[in-house]
Amino acid sequence: MNLYLHVPFCATRCSYCDFYTRTNLRLMERYHAALLKELELRAPEAADETVEHIYLGGGTPSLLSIKQLEAIFEAIRRHYDLLPGGEITLEANPDDISPAYAEALGRLPINRVSMGVQSFDEGELRLLGRRHSRAQALRAVELLRSVGLDNLSLDLIYGLPAQTLEGWRSSLMQMLEIAPPHLSAYHLIYEEGTPMMRALRQGRVQEVSEEASLSFFELLIDETSRAGYEHYEISNFARPGCYARLNTGYWLGSKYIGLGPSAHSYDGLRRSHNVASTTLYALALEEGRRAHEVETLTPEDKLHEYLLTRLRTMWGIDLEAMAEQFSAKEVESLLDRSRGHLERGTLTLEGGRLRLSPSGVFVSDGVIADLF
After folding, report:
1. pLDDT tens digits, one per residue of 227-281
2. CB atoms within 10 A of CB 290
3. Alpha helix (H) ranges present in 202-298?
4. Are 334 and 371 in contact (CB under 8 A)?
5. Which CATH number fits domain 2-251: 3.40.50.720, 3.90.1150.10, 3.20.20.70, 3.40.50.300?
């Protein structure tokens, strides 16, 4: 079992983000007190489990003070059985990483930091509404490494309005020069309700063409492979053995408890999610209860999630394991639905595993949809 803690605060809101976040930092103390209560309240859910990995995501967890982080880890230590050597990740914004903050992080149980760099181009950073500069991103990496936090994951976004192949190459090559153990690269998605979507509808920005998107993706695949990274999930690349452990658990069906406003949980049979309101989240916990909704998964739900998550990874679907978990009939049905993509080369079948091919990864949404 794993723990995910959602920290729903940002100093400013990025133009492309549709996650549940708030820029009203006055609620931070109330949220923090509620989170500590939720950690205690939900400990019985893990009574017969060992917690392997912990992830503090957001939002911007690096807005939490060291004192607040210390209290969170003390609550986890007190209420949960932890597996020694598990991965403990903190998401951070580069401009939060001061020398003093980095040094203090190095004394905490945190052993991995994930930073949303997104671009090394100043103009693109402004377009995205990021609050750091290229120099601050490079300095943050330096500071974290200086205190022994060299297990880093860095994010990039590509397919930005007016982005050129050379512009994308510049950011990507700077990333590969830094050489983090893990990197994530996401194509920009225009999400409803975001400033980026409003700009698109008002004609102030234009989407890149499908041809440009493909060229960006091919460059990403070629250069990361040349640099020794494994493309182990649609948007994720790692040095051998440096896969994001908690996220890999998501894709391979591990149980997890999600804490904080809007956080999702999975116990193997049901999914639940906390209310997407910091105020209502805190109010409920102050009253000794949890504000959440529960969904019991149907056999069809479980099958669809199995296909969706496994196919996102380089391991694909182990057909023998699928037959054991579902049935041989479901495997036969899957292979029948896969036939067209196997013939077109967007899926491969080798060693009893069904996988997306390199060309299939680029059109993965359509391929996976055809298998449902």
Report:
1. 999 999 999 999 999 999 999 998 998 999 999 999 999 998 999 999 999 999 9
2. 16
3. 210-226, 245-251, 278-286
4. yes
5. 3.20.20.70
d(CA 123, CA 168) in angstroms, rounded, equals: 12
Q: pLDDT band at residue 10, thresholds of 50, 70 and 90?
A: confident
| 0.90 exceeded by pTM | yes
Q: Is 245 left (phi over 0), alpha (psi -120 to 50) or beta?
A: alpha
- Count of beta carbons in the 10 Å neighbourhood of residue 95: 17
Question: What number does CATH give the domain 299-370?
Answer: 1.10.10
Segment 176-197, tens digit of pLDDT: 999 999 999 999 988 888 988 9
* Ramachandran region, residue 193 (left: φ > 0; alpha: ψ -120 to 50; beta: rest): left
Structure tokens at 348: 């491969």
The three-state secondary structure class of 166 is: helix
Every domain of the chain and the residues it spans: 2-251, 299-370
CB-neighbour burial class of residue 299 (10 A; exposed 0-12, middle 13-18, buried 19+): exposed
